Fold:
Amino acid sequence: MMQEELSALEDLQAMTDWFARPVLHVTDVEASLRFYVDRLGFTSSWRYEDGGKARVAQVDRQGCALILADTWPERIGKALTFISLNVEPETREAMVAALDALRADLEAKGVLVKEGSWGYRLLVVDDPDGNQLFFNYPNQSASAGLT
Structure:
């Protein structure tokens, strides 16, 4: 590569942030939207409809974006997504308090919240199709096996 091309590539990389949005495959996008919005506190930012039926939609909550889609039935319920909470101050106590508050909020809305482990303690939420959201506690091991 020439120096000009390298410089342009470096400029592009300096200006570019990557943003990932996992796709959770679901049976019914409308039903999933109700769960994610009404029970988990997400907002619905956009949707694609075909024949008057929602086929793909995005939900967002505090910087976390998830895409819900019914386009690949063979993949329904197979997603596992890690979601991290950024808290201030960045202390173990603040992180645990934030996760405990999230758990209380979700359970108050009728969401089943499970304990899990993947080498450390997790808060686990399954959506109606079995897709799992994993929220990790900081540096805390658990005796239970992988959920």
Remarks:
- The chain has one domain: 16-136.
